[in-house]
Design brief:
InterPro entries: Peptidase_S54_rhomboid_dom (IPR022764), Rhomboid-like_sf (IPR035952), Rhomboid_protease_S54 (IPR050925), TPR-like_helical_dom_sf (IPR011990). The protein has 2 domains: 240 residues, Up-down Bundle (Rhomboid-like fold); 130 residues, Alpha Horseshoe (Serine Threonine Protein Phosphatase 5, Tetratricopeptide repeat), CATH 1.25.40. The protein is 66% helix and 6% strand. It is built from 18 helices and 3 strands. The protein has a 3-stranded antiparallel sheet. Strand 2 and strand 3 form a beta hairpin. The protein is elongated, with a radius of gyration of 26 Å.
């Protein structure tokens, strides 16, 4: 048996939104699920007939049989769980807070408790709640796409929590997950790279069953788990890439480029080099951020790209600087100056709220690739500063 029980490192902030979601799910279970599970169904409920038809009951059914097999909670799940054949906006959200039993609830809350705090620290409580609900909706829609005629209600927080896992996968690649292993006589806790644990969850626990048993095979909504995870990946990518690019477009629109007359038009790399040489780094920033392809960006001298990032950092444009350094890392994986880009990205994140853990990972990345002793020393200095700051909180 393999059971995740924690992760490291963890932020020092209190994950209020994560605890709120856990509290809401537990409260619904205690106040709704448990009482109604032991209550008899109301035979006058107009939804009862639809429910019986959905489970295949036909003809005359003795009242005693109904009372023995159907509880009031069954009808609640039928009403507020998400049924692809009878979709509603209310059930799309209410289904996220209903669970089938203690094990269903505890498993979901364990994963939310382990992985939610880091993601919430990165996004902030309000945006974390919005991301949670958005990926939960994505999970539901993905599941419904493959089961459009199903009247079986889908319930549980696992779709939304899978979205949190997708966000975690992108943003915290160097984290470790503490896994409890119990196998015959082996009982121990080991730390495994987070991406291995989450990759196993996605591929082995969900994708393979989805391919061979269907979206809801075995009573588990594997399709919802996959949809939520992919939704989280897409949301993290959008926040990291599209948001800085959009801000860069606003910067370019506010500072229109002059027309340069030349017999032979300048290439983007030549124009950026000229603008920097002329002492016009603002124009060079706008021109670099306008480059749409990796090939165009790779033609710009690496030192000039790093100079653009440093200029943005010095001016307090941390989002744009982070975008420049991340592009350098993505475009120039074998560049000898890669450690400088990791350091720049870490410095940018240190100046953004709730991003200290991500900054820590970038400084670790700088240590991994640095060849220059100065870069190694700088990375160690920043890591020590973050660790000292964490202990003082």
């Amino acid at each position: 048996m393999f059971l995740p029980i924690g992760d490291t490192p963890n932020p020092r902030s209190t994950p209020y939104a994560t605890w709120l979601l856990i509290g809401l799910n537990v409260a619904v279970f205690l106040l709704v699920t448990l009482p109604l599970s032991g209550s008899r169904v109301d035979l006058n409920d107009p939804l009862l007939l639809d429910y019986l038809h959905s489970i295949g009951a036909r003809g005359s059914i003795p009242v005693e049989a109904i009372l023995q097999q159907v509880s009031a909670y069954d009808l609640t799940v039928f009403r507020f769980g998400y049924r692809p054949a009878a979709p509603s906006l209310l059930s799309m959200f209410s289904a996220m807070f209903l669970h089938a039993g203690w094990m269903h609830l505890l498993g979901n809350m364990l994963f939310l408790w382990i992985f939610g705090d880091n993601v919430e620290h990165r996004l902030g409580p309000v945006r974390f709640l919005l991301a949670y609900l958005a990926t939960g909706v994505a999970a539901t829609l993905f599941f419904a796409f493959f089961e459009p005629g199903s009247q079986v209600p889908m319930i549980g927080a696992s779709g939304a929590i899978s979205g949190v896992l997708g966000l975690y996968f992108i943003w915290f690649p160097r984290n470790k997950v503490k896994v409890f292993i119990f196998f015959i006589i082996i009982v121990q806790v080991v730390e495994i790279p987070a991406r291995l644990v989450l990759g196993f969850y996605l591929l082995v626990d969900n994708l393979l069953p989805f391919l061979f048993a269907g979206a809801g095979g075995g009573g588990v909504a594997h399709g919802a788990h996959i949809g939520g995870f992919v939704g989280g990946l897409a949301l993290a990518w959008g926040i990291d890439r599209l948001l800085p690019a959009w801000k860069g477009r606003r910067l370019r629109e506010a500072r229109p480029e002059p027309t340069v007359k030349s017999e032979q038009p300048e290439t983007p790399a030549e124009e950026i080099r000229r603008l920097l040489a002329e002492g016009r780094p603002e124009r060079a920033v706008s021109r670099y951020l306008s480059l749409e392809t990796r090939e165009q960006r790779r033609q710009v001298d690496g030192d000039q790209v790093l100079a653009i990032g440093d200029f943005l950092l010095a001016g307090g444009a941390h989002d744009e600087a982070l975008s420049v350094f991340r592009r350098f890392i993505a475009d120039r994986g074998n560049d000898s100056r890669l450690s400088r880009a990791y350091l720049g990205a870490g410095r940018a994140l240190m100046n953004k709220p709730r991003c200290m853990t991500s900054a820590y990972h970038y400084f670790l990345g700088a240590l991994d690739v640095a060849e220059d002793p100065n870069d190694i020393e700088a990375a160690r200095r920043y890591i020590a500063a973050i660790q000292k700051s964490g202990r003082s909180q």
